[in-house]
## 1
Amino acid sequence: MKDPLTPWLFPAASQTEETAENAPLAERLRPRRLSEIVGQDQLLGEGCFLREAIRQDQIPSMIFWGPPGVGKTTLARVIARQTRAHFVALSAVLAGIKEVREIVGMARKELQRQGRRTILFVDEIHRFNKAQQDAFLPHVESGTIILIGATTENPSFEVIAPLLSRCRVLVLEPLEETHLLAILKRALEDAEQGYGDLRIEAEPDALRQIALFSGGDARRALNALEAAVQLGSAEQSDGPLSLTTALVREALQKRTLLYDKAGEEHFNLISALHKSLRNSDVDASLYWLARMLESGEDPLYIARRLVRFASEDVGLADPGALGKALDAMRAVDFIGLPEGKLALAQATVYLAQAPKSNAVYRAYGAVAEAVAECPHEPVPLQLRNAPTALMKGLGYGRGYLYAHDQELGTADLDCLPDSLVGRRFYHPSEEGFEGRVARRLEEWRRRRTRAATESNEDES
């Protein structure tokens, strides 16, 4: 009888120890034992948590969080081979609550009949919605299943809090260049699963180029190597295959950058740009700008963030910064890409080198807090218009002094609601133009104090 779970299960280690010869190189070389895994020393080093949990067969529910190609699925399969638990692998792309319930039923029977707990590995767990994730909770809580989820997205946003509190989150880092080079060399030397029988002579720089291209992703590195070998084999009929940098460049054609406009990397990169601008680091700012543009980010999104930065972090230290950012936004909207990239680069350089002040940003935040505290303060009578006799009779406009008619250019006039009189919200810095603003405001305050003194003397 055909297993009804087959359509949404992907192959687990227990199903076969052999890998088909026509499988991709990355699949053929997937480590089968803990000793074969390269990298992730923070989890798998001697005495580290995960290594000890596997060794002692005490696996808790976990979430593996990391970018593609760093070993999340591989670790799950190694756990399957090296523990006594029953192992089931599930793809969140293809499955739903119905399949989860079926697995839980199988797990209960396994626990009752064999005394074995079931490890349920859910790939791309972030693709399950809240209701689907809720279905795991009672079974993880009761110990019926040990849940291991894998995700490329930040679990804080993509996994519901009750489930997250019952799992240990393990962060897998992108592989380093040395790790990728070791994996590539193993692929060239392994005669059984790799290219050990093809007599490939690889230039060190060619392998290094693949490692650099891969961005910490072992699967991408092996796929690139496989493409280069296939291309070289087609072009070279006899003798050892020479894996050169030119051959690798031809196979790769165009470097694909790691970027997900809807995921965490999107926010990481815009954060890096904003903070590099704030730190007045022109080179870093241009780098992060290019990372986003070359990865396909919407240029108008970047332009909007530059406009925001001009007000938030430059402010009145350079009043021209907002105009420069708006000019760049209009230019990009008008001419599009690729020509608009230079307009954004120009604005980025300008904003990075500009004097910085967040005084306006902080002032608005302080004012917003005051409004929240006192949302219904009446407008002082002296500031109200009095277009009718009734309003004049009620005191509207009484005591108002027209600043232009005053000898000092300002009057002894309270313009804030009574409960806020004397409050200071805007504290200008001494940076750039804002330093002049600070001195000018201080002069106006001195004049108002003098006007108040003269008014009191006249009254006396």
## 2
Amino acid sequence: MSDAVLEALWKKVLDAWDDEAAHGAFIEHCRATDRLLEAAVRYRGMAGDHVRGAAADKRLKAIALLAVASLETERSTPARNHSGAVSVVLILFFLGGSLWLFFAMK
């Protein structure tokens, strides 16, 4: 899937490799659009470069931390269940049945 914004941000990263803001904007866009894997692949491709390799490794570590944090957030978010509503319905049903039996026996 093509993302024109991602491509433009990556081009800016390549054109201004020492610009921290360019890297930050690219990685933030990838995080916001669930494309951290794409960012990791691009930085991994730069890791072998003698000039840019150290910075690429630094960015890969940052991307890995973002990915793990995202997974932890998803994992710790409680799933919604309706057990409370089911409990209320069952209690009301039990009380209604008990009252019906109580008055039916009189």
